[in-house]
C-alpha cells in the first residue's frame, strides 16, 4: 500500500514537471526502472553504454577529459559504483523529491534509514536533456 502512495506522489510530481520540461513519452519513473534492470546485469563492457546513455552530457564531457568512458567503465563496475547506484535507485521511492523547474531537474534526498530499513544515503539528481532523463551527479 505504501508503494501505491509513493507512485501516486511521483506521478503528481511528474505532472508538475511536464509543464516545465519538454517532455517525451519517457517518464522518470520508467527511466529509473530501465536503469535498475541494466545495473542488475551490468558488465564492464555494458557499462560503457550505460554511462554514455545516462550521464548528463556536460558531465560526460568532463569524463572524456579525465580518460574517457573506456577508462571509467570497468572501474564503475569493479569499484562498486554500479552496485551503489542500484541501491540508491532501489531506495528512491523512500526519498523526498525536490523539483527545480528553472534547472529542469528532480533531486531525491536519501536518508540513512527509513524506520528499521537500511537505505542508501545522499542525493541523486536527474536532469532532462536531449529528450531523456540523465544522471546529473
Helix content: 40-55%
Low-confidence stretches: 1-5, 17-25
The tally of helices reads: 6
Structural class: alpha+beta
β content, as a range? 15-25%
- How are the strands ordered across the major sheet? 1-2-5-6
The average pLDDT value, as a whole number, equals 78
Largest sheet data: 4 strands, antiparallel
Query: In whole angstroms, how far apart are the ends?
Result: 31 Å
Which term fits the overall shape?
globular
Quaternary: single chain
How many β-strand runs? 6
Radius of gyration: 15 Å
Q: Secondary-structure element sequence?
A: HHHHHHEEEEEE
Summary tags:
two-stranded antiparallel ribbon, 4-stranded antiparallel sheet, disordered N terminus, 137 residues, alpha+beta
Task: Summarize the topology.
Blueprint: H1 2-20, H2 28-40, H3 44-54, H4 57-65, H5 68-78, H6 81-91, E1 96-100, E2 105-110, E3 113-114, E4 117-118, E5 122-129, E6 132-135
Helix pairs in contact: 2-6, 3-5
Description of the molecule:
- With 137 residues, the protein is of the alpha+beta class.
- It has helices at 2-20, 28-40, 44-54, 57-65, 68-78, 81-91, and strands at 96-100, 105-110, 113-114, 117-118, 122-129, 132-135.
- Helix content is 54%, strand content 20%.
- Strand 5 (122-129) and strand 6 form a beta hairpin.
- Helix 3 (44-54) crosses helix 5.
- The longest helix has 19 residues, at 2-20.
- It is globular and about 35 Å long.
- The protein starts with a helix and ends with a strand.
- The model is unreliable at 1-5 and 17-25 (pLDDT under 50).
Amino acid at each position: 500500500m505504501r508503494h501505491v502512495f509513493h507512485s501516486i506522489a511521483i506521478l503528481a510530481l511528474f505532472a508538475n514537471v511536464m509543464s516545465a520540461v519538454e517532455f517525451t513519452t519517457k517518464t522518470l519513473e520508467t527511466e529509473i526502472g530501465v536503469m535498475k534492470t541494466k545495473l542488475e546485469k551490468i558488465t564492464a563492457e555494458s557499462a560503457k553504454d550505460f554511462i554514455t546513455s545516462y550521464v548528463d552530457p556536460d558531465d560526460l564531457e568532463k569524463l572524456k577529459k579525465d580518460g574517457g568512458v573506456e577508462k571509467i567503465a570497468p572501474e564503475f563496475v569493479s569499484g562498486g559504483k554500479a552496485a551503489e547506484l542500484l541501491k540508491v535507485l532501489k531506495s528512491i521511492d523512500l526519498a523526498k523529491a525536490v523539483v527545480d523547474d528553472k534547472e529542469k531537474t528532480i533531486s531525491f534526498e536519501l536518508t540513512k534509514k527509513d524506520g528499521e530499513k537500511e537505505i542508501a544515503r545522499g542525493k541523486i539528481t536527474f536532469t532532462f536533456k536531449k529528450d531523456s532523463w540523465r544522471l546529473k551527479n
